[in-house]
Each structure stands twice: as structure tokens, then as C-alpha cells.
Amino acid sequence: MAGVELPWYVPASDGVGGLIAGWRQGTIGLSKGRLSMTDLHAALSHIPAQPGVYRFVDAEGAVLYVGKAKDLHKRVASYLRSGGPADGRIAEMVARARDIEWVVTGTEQEALLVEDAFIKESRPPYNVRLRDDKSYPFIEVTLRDEWPRVRFMRGRRVPGNLYFGPYASARKVREVLDLIGRIFPYRKCRGPRPGRPSGTPCLQHFIKRSLGPCEGRCSQAEYREVIEEVIGFLRGDMRAVERRIEAEMAAAAGAREFEKAALLRDRLAAVRHVAERQVARTEGAGDFDVIGLCQAGLGANVQVFRVREGALVARQQFYLENAEGAERVTVLEQFLMEFYWEGAGIPPQVIVDADGDVSGAAVLLTERRGAKVAVRRAQRGPKRRLVELAARNAKLAAEAEVERLARRREGRREAMERLRDSLGLPGLPLRIECYDISNLGDTNAVGSMVVFEEGRPRPAHYRSFAIRDVTGQDDFAMMRQVIERRFARGDGGGEATGMIGQAAKGFDESFATHPDLVVVDGGKGQLSAALAGLAAAGADDVAVVSLAKQREEVFVPGRVGPLPLPPDDPGSLLLQRVRDEAHRFALTHHRRRRAAQSRRSAIFDELPGVGSARRRKILEYFGSPERFLTASREELEAVPGLPPKVARGIYAHLHKTG
After folding, report:
1. What is the CATH number assigned to the segment(s) 288-400?
2. CATH number for the segment(s) 602-657
3. What whole-number distance in Å separates Cα of residue 412 and Cα of residue 456?
4. I want to staple 292 with a disulfide (CB 3.0 to 4.6 A). Which of 37, 391, 621, 657 is the partner?
């Protein structure tokens, strides 16, 4: 079998960072080239019966699925046996796979760690994952800053900072931030250094919610004590926070600093008030988390009960996608790796409701926490009752989610059936594409294409078109151009000139299938333009309608007036939803293009070694161009992702030009 190399072994001491880098750079080779499913069967003879991690890859090189196994040969063979996988999701994945890669590890614990790293890196579509996992919010404590901030955060995490979460909703994060912001007087200003551009203290200082580090009203040691109290509070260590504040209050009173002592007294009362609200207690139980899991339908629901010093301080719930047919222990392990990714909030015990060996998860959580973590089942007593309560909540939530999804599926099907009947389509409009134009004056005009499949958005197939060679605000000509260019690529191939964010050439899955229905935003003029574009591209067999905003009127070819659709008709409401999404997507890209143009300035354009990515990092770090211009060389060198040599060049350039 051409192109297959023997697997490689990485000892634990090499670390996951080196392992990932070696795989990506190609210095560690395995299973090179594209293999058909026939070749995958032949590849089994090269896969050893040892612990490790395997990856299924599609024809474009995208990772579809990452898994670990005690015996790589047996596990991979189970996917390729004649009966095939029983789980429809996994069967679909195997059908798409064109290549397989594997890595041998020394232990199952290493395999779990490597699997987790690969899942974090490539976000495979068929692995178990938190729903909308990229957008779950956290609370970030910026310990890298000289004067740390406590703030709302999404997205990529910065090494050295501390994170608490994930939280199930942004509202919950803001509620927590509002609470701790009223209790603890940390600074609320943005930027790595305290203060506003004007130099005057903010309102937070005058209402006693900030120590005023911007005016030197506190020492760095005093400020760090407040941050440590915030961290303890977020970890749920209420008693430790109380003892700390009590000691500070006694010291202030002993030094006859009565105003400071009074402020600490009020802070202590607020913390005790929050602690007293935690009425559910497990006496003498210490700190632990309880995990309840229920798999139902295509996913699973997870309930997390957080107990600190015997008090139930929080309950969180999460929905996992792609959990259908997966082993319960596998789902649990992947959730633990995702939920406790940062290690900031890991308690000494995690109580789970699952049979099977979870010792690998315990080892990795211990490494992340820096102290021993026991992951186990509760056999009896209060902890067992809490596990049963969490499992019951997870079961009820999972069943409710299955029912909700079934109702939504029925509603989407009804809407497609009504559209089919109202528009006289030969079949259900399973794939709907909608187009909109966004422009302001004669500049930055863009066209958008959004895709709905089976009544649901398919964001991976959304595309934007940069309008070219159209003079003035000619919406009809723009619409015709967008439609013609899209359907000229009806097989997914050809040239994609003018596409925003797309490769100039190559296969594009979003263009590979003709839609069952095309919707254009506008009236009869836009409909005529779309028909002309379809005819020019040789796709005049595609059904097309237009939807006018003012009265939500639907126009079809060959009819003078609009279709008499009731305003509450499910098919009409689906069209409006598709049209609104196309409008939002077009407007978003139009604003980005305008913003990119307006952000260009002589200062940033002339900085040596600074492109758009580094410009964004600089602005995120300093908070404003003004703060960046006054930064010292040391501050510039501290910007994450900015090489020290580039930072020194920027500093020299700014001070040379003034």
C-alpha cells in the first residue's frame, strides 16, 4: 500500500506540545497521501495492537473524528467490519473518510491527553462536544497584568491568565460580575494599566467600588489581596474569603484605620449574605463537584452541582452534541476534559454517575489542578443522593430537549410542505439559498448568500461576494452579477474571483449542489435580475422567488401581483427568516469592510512588521490607539504574539517619527 508509514511513538516526557508540532510540521510521518476505503482496509496490517489515538480524515484533509483506544488495531477494525458501525452518525463519518492517521502512546492516560489535544486543535464535527462550545463565556482574571482585571471573556485564552467557567449563558456571567463588582473593589477600567485616557479617576472609585490604583490610592500588594479574594470567591471558597477579610478588618482596626475597617466590614457582610443563600448543605463533605449525565436522542445533557465547604453553591447544565451511540465513559471523559480545561476550578473530588474506568481522567485532572483529584462514584450517603439528583435533572432536561427538537423538526417540515404547495414546487425545498445586497453609496458593496437545509441554517455554506464593475447603486445589476457568478460554479469548481475569504480556485462544497429554491431580497425588479443571472449561467430550471420587506410580499415569475400568503403562514415565516439571515450576513460583511477601511491610518500602515493580525493583537492588548502610542518598550514587548524584535522596531519607529 503506497504512502503508508509505520506509526511513531512519543514518550510522555516529550509533552503534547511537541507531539502536536511534530504532527503538523510533518517531521513525524504516518499514513501519508490520500487513501480510498479499500486502502483503509489494507492499512489495518500496519496499525499495531497498542494504546494510541487515531484520526479519520476526509478528501480535503479535514479531520472528521478523533478517538483513543487501548488497542488501536481492534478499535479501527471495528469501524471497517462488514456490518459497519451501528451508530448512524459514525457510519456517516466512515463513509466520508478517505484517510486514517494514528499515533502510538505509552499508556491509556497519554492517549486520553493526546486525544483531548487533537480535539481542541481541530474541532472534529463527529466528536462529542459542548453545543456552541466556541462561544461559551468565561470569567477571566488577567494575572499577566501588573494590576489584574476581572472581566467577561469568550474565545481564545491567554496563557498565564486565570479562567472560571464555562458558564451556560452570558447573562449568568454578567450577573456574577455585577455581584463581585459590588463586593470587591478591583479596578473596572479597560487596558493593561489602570486609568482613563483623561487621567481622572472614574466613578467606580468615588462610590467605593475601586481602590483607585490609577491615582496611587493603594499599593500593588493591597490590590493583589483584593484579587486573591475575588479568586477565592469564584472558586467557591467562601469561608476562606471570610477569614481573609476578617483578618484585614482586625488589622485595620488595630491600626486605627476605621474608615478602611468599615469598608471591610461591609464587604464581609456582603460575602456572608451570599454564603447564607446557599441553603443546601452536606455537613463535613468539603469541596467536590457532582456530574450527572443522560444520553438521549442525538446528544446528552450534563448537570454539574458545585459543592464548596458542604454548601451547594452553583448548578450548571450543558448539552453535548454527537453523543448518540458513544460509550458513556467516553462521553464523560470528553466532557471532563472540556469543562475543566483551564484547571482553575477543579475540586479535590469529582463525583460521577458512570460505570467504567475513569482513572485516566483523574490523572489528567490531577496534572491540571496541581494537586490530587479523585474521580469516582458515590456508593452511599449524601453524595450518592446528590448524584441521583443530578442524574434525575439530566434525564428530565435531556428528554425535554429531545421533545423540543422533535417539535422543531415537525414545524420545519410543515413550513417546507406549505412552501411546496404555495409555490407549486415539484418537491420539498430541502435546500434554500437566499441572496441580498448591502452597500452605502458607491463603496464596499457586497452580496451575501445564505443557505438553509431542511429548514435550518447551514453557516458553513454561507458565502459573500465582492461586487465588481458596477457603477453607482445599481442593485439590480449587483443582484444579477451575484446570481450569475454563483451558478457559474454549479459543480463546486471553477474560478471564484471576487469571493470574500475564499480561495481563488478549487472545489467548494457550498456550490456543489443546486438549491431547490432561490430567494432574493426585494421586489419584482430583483426577481427579474435574478432570473437574468440564472439564464446567463444556464440554470434557468432553478425555482426562484423574491420577498419584499415592506409588506412581506412574495413575488414569483409569470405573476403580476404577489402571492396571497397569510402573514402567519409557516412557509411565509420560513421565507422571512431566511431573508432576515441573508440581510444580517450581508450587513455584517459590509460593516467589516467599512470598518477595515476606516481603521487604516498612517500610524498602523507604516509600522514595520505589523499586519492586520498583529494590529488586532496590539489594539486588544492596549484597548485604544492612544494608549498604544504612549506605551513603553517593555509594554510593547509584553504584547502576546508580538516578537520582541518587532516590538523594539515599533518603539524605535514611533519615537523616530514622533
Report:
1. 3.30.420.10
2. 1.10.150.20
3. 8
4. 391
